[in-house]
Specification:
With about 260 residues, the chain is an alpha/beta fold. About 20% of the residues lie in helices and about 25% in strands.
């Protein structure tokens, strides 16, 4: 049986799996769907067209599925979709999407989202990310798999953060952060590549060597972004094992806005 505390208010239209647990004084709206094994702590508000997958842990005082902080929003049925096995700590605020984009704010699987994290409308978060306390995303931000955001990281709207990248505490991002890159500062500056993180995830020495070569092309050899992309593309000839990593970097760089550029 679903375990719902007597003080919680769950709308009759909400769809909760029989194994869901809901804590005291939590409010769940009529368009909410919650998958098996998910636990929702006390004093949470989950509203809007929000879908939450399996085995998530949502701690107290979180607000999920509220309307976007966008003056253009006029009540459209936009969504918040959260995947499986995510940890959402205290005081997190995730808004639904907006009609000016896909209409969906999306969180993938196996993410660790610490206290006071904010995901604005139309953000897309991949899998296996870590957001430390007070990481704040403005609207339309995309975050790749395995990215780590240090505490108090603030990200400007429409910025893209590549897979396996990392920000230091109190970083301010106005430009796109390529995959693998570690950055710090206000505004952010590239410092190195996330080599230790890659080793922990099982990257071979050959793949790490390719990442080092990408770093050299992007940051050490005074190349334009287009020239760096040409250099990076050639890495597959000498390090075939790194082809997926090169393809990911090339795909990311091909989408960089000329006005925004990458973190330098």
């Amino acid at each position: 049986m679903t375990t719902i505390h007597s003080t919680a208010i769950v709308d009759a239209g909400a769809e909760l799996d029989s194994s869901v647990t809901v804590g005291p004084y939590t409010l769940i709206g009529p368009h909410v769907k919650v998958g098996p094994g998910t636990t929702i702590g006390p004093h949470c508000v989950i509203e809007g067209h929000t879908t939450i997958g399996a085995d998530n842990r949502i701690f107290q005082f979180s607000s999920l599925g509220a309307i976007p902080q966008d003056k253009k929003y006029a009540g459209e049925p936009c969504e918040l979709i959260i995947g499986d096995r995510n940890t959402v700590r205290e005081f997190c605020t995730f808004n639904i999407g907006s009609p000016g984009d896909t209409g969906i704010t999306r969180v993938g699987n196996d993410n660790w989202l610490m206290a006071y994290v904010h995901l604005a409308h139309d953000c897309v978060v991949g899998n296996n990310t870590i957001f430390a306390n007070n990481s704040q995303l403005a609207g339309h931000v995309h975050v790749g798999d395995w990215a780590i955001l240090g505490g108090f990281t603030v990200v400007h709207q429409f910025v893209k953060i590549g897979a396996h990248s990392m920000t230091a505490m109190c970083t301010l991002l106005f430009a796109d952060l390529p995959p693998f890159v570690m950055c710090q500062g206000q505004p952010a500056q590239a410092r190195s590549m996330n080599f230790e993180g890659l080793r922990r995830r099982g990257f071979s020495p050959e793949r790490i060597a390719a990442v080092k070569a990408m770093h050299k092309a992007l940051y050490r050899d005074d190349l334009t972004l287009e020239a760096a992309r040409v250099r990076i593309a050639e890495l597959t000839l000498s390090i075939p094992e790194a082809a997926p990593d090169v393809e990911m970097m090339q795909s990311f760089l091909s989408q960089v806005s000329p006005q925004r550029g990458i973190v330098r």
